[in-house]
Amino acid sequence: MSDRTVAELSRSLAQGEISSVELTRDYLDRIAQHNTLYNAYITVTEDLALAQAAQADAVRAKGEAGPLTGIPIAHKDIFCMQDVLTTCGSKMLANFIAPYNATVVEKLNAAGAVTLGKTNMDEFAMGSSNENSFFGAVRNPWDTERVPGGSSGGSATAVAADLCAIATGTDTGGSIRQPAAFCGLTGFKPSYGRISRWGMIAYASSLDQAGPISKSAEDAALMMNAMAGPDHRDSTSVDMPAPDFTANLNDSLQGLRIGVVRQHLAEGLDANVESALQDALKVFEGLGATIKEIDLPNSHLSVSAYYVIAPAEASANLSRYDGVRFGYRCENPVNLEDMYKRSRSEGFGNEVKRRILVGTYALSAGYYDAYYIKAQQIRRLIKQDYIDAFKEVDVIIGPTTPNTAFKIGEKNDDPVTMYLEDIYTVSINLAGLPAISIPAGSSKSADGKSLPIGIQLVGSDFAEAKVLNIAHQFQQHTDWHQQRPEG
Amino acid sequence: MALEQSDVEKIAQLARLDVDANEAQEVTKRISSILELIDQMQDVNTKNVAPLAHPFDAIQRLRPDEVTETDQREYLQAIAPATQDGLYLVPKVIE
């Protein structure tokens, strides 16, 4: 039963085929059996999960169950959970027991979800392979020699390997969508501010956004209904009520105008990824959509602008880790300066330190205009390109990643090679738009492993329901999202 | 723009990070390659383009200045590396 979608599990729970306690035990058994291999979880909250499951069964017995009541989920270890270890994948927080709940955690608790544990991730969400975790690399269930993507790699592997029904992730430059693509899953990044960032450990505050990693678009919509909405504790959360994200799932795509970005088809795209994209476009045409080529003339600048803005914001956000109030402190500091420097140098990993250095440089006197302001100007050009494009089309469809999952160790020698993984995803964060990655094909690796291919659907500001509708309709007419890794 | 090792040492000091002497050259090389990637931006004319700091150009919302949180000092200090009498302890600052 652990391989089912949330919607299916919800029906099984409602019909009394299984209790939440039984279902939770199932998942806990699978975690105990398989997590050593996958390394998807940093912390398993077994006692909490069983208590929440019993509570969910009691709520159901009273006739008060909602769609997520009793559903076993996992949280990316970037979300603070009260009295639970919350590491953000870092040695810096390897001893951090969070004293409060993130809003996302609180909302999912209130919806009756059962928390199985906290998933592995690239340190402070900086990475595209999950190899930057202090707690070790995560393996992709489709081929355990390969990365699951990152930074929400633990969440993606946990869902793909049936170690939870659905998981939370965060996406600053692609960290939900890219691992979803690599693991054959649905990964949804809502518009900036749609979900509260309160208690979500900050990487780049103007880009960070939470969302679900799931087995279907319908599941993503169910999860969004619990996660989204304004929050007075996050002043950047959007001050408008969240709609019912499931309400439009079954709308017809007749007359839908799809944009395909000319620049995306030009350079560096893997042939299998391109053919999966073309096949998907044919499916959409069959459903009544029309395809139009569009231009995003500044899209080639998005990686450059992103790798200024994100590190600049990170260097400011991560200045709080100083060894004073919480987190790692070095042994026997000789003075305050020594304590700051050694706590930070010993507590942060290499990629985090690199981004802090780049960000500090971009914000330093004499370089601020040339780097930080310049990047924000480029950001406006990128946003304007999207505003113009959405005058002509309802949705933009393209690849999520330039290629399928790569091998562990293959790209971690050179940060720039790794950054170019994000070429199709980062502009969407810069523009604050909603986007979903859905499975749309697969290719065979040289050693005969089947590797999933994801495509990305991008909507205009706050058009989450539309994006989920289009993804759901695709999944009603294809079965790529139902394919599962062997073993 | 390529950096010198001394630039990296200066930035590291600003960020309160130690760059190990053995690693300094490697770090300098990698940061320089990142800056090379970033420098693609410099060819673009952005005259009269207003910087975009927030995807929807939103401005900071203010709330009424009312006390809404309760005192949780003991609970919050339980996770600190070192405290005494409700204060955070750090190495001696004033000689």
The 3D shape of chain A can be described as globular
**What percentage of amino acids of chain B are in beta strands?**
under 5%
Low-confidence runs of at least 5 consecutive residues of chain B: none
Structural class of chain B: mainly alpha
Tell me the number of strands of chain A.
Answer: 11
Overall morphology of chain B: flat
Provide a count of the helices of chain A: 16
What does the radius of gyration of chain B come to? 22 Å
Count every helix of chain B, treating DSSP H or I runs of 4 or more residues as helices.
3
Can you offer a commentary on this structure?
The complex is a heterodimer of chains A (487) and B (95). With 487 residues, chain A is of the alpha/beta class. Chain A has 16 helices and eleven strands. Chain A has an eleven-stranded mixed beta sheet with strand order 1-3-2-4-6-5-10-11-9-7-8, with helices on both faces. In chain A, α2 runs antiparallel to α3, α7 runs antiparallel to α16 and α10 packs across α13 (368-389). The two termini of chain A are 15 Å apart. Chain B has a domain at 5-42. Helix content of chain B is 32%, strand content 4%. Chain B is built from three helices and two strands. Chain B has helices at 5-14, 24-38, 73-77; strands at 83-84, 87-88. The longest helix of chain B has 15 residues, at 24-38. The model of chain B has no long low-confidence stretch (mean pLDDT 91). Chains A and B meet through α10, α11, α12, α13 and α14 of A and α1, α2 and α3 of B.
Question: What does this entry show, briefly?
Answer:
The complex is a heterodimer of chains A (487) and B (95). With 487 residues, chain A is an alpha/beta fold. Chain A is built from 16 helices and eleven strands.
Write the layout of secondary structure elements.
The complex is a heterodimer of chains A (487) and B (95).
Chain A: H1 6-14, H2 20-38, E1 41-44, H3 46-61, E2 72-76, H4 103-110, E3 114-119, H5 153-160, E4 166-171, H6 177-182, E5 186-189, E6 209-214, H7 217-227, E7 257-261, H8 262-266, H9 271-286, E8 290-294, H10 302-317, H11 336-347, H12 350-363, H13 368-389, E9 395-399, H14 415-419, H15 426-431, E10 435-444, E11 450-458, H16 464-477
Parallel strand pairs in A: 2-3, 2-4, 7-8, 7-9
Antiparallel strand pairs in A: 1-3, 4-6, 5-6, 5-10, 9-11, 10-11
Chain B: H1 5-14, H2 24-38, H3 73-77, E1 83-84, E2 87-88
Antiparallel strand pairs in B: 1-2
Helix pairs in contact in B: 1-2
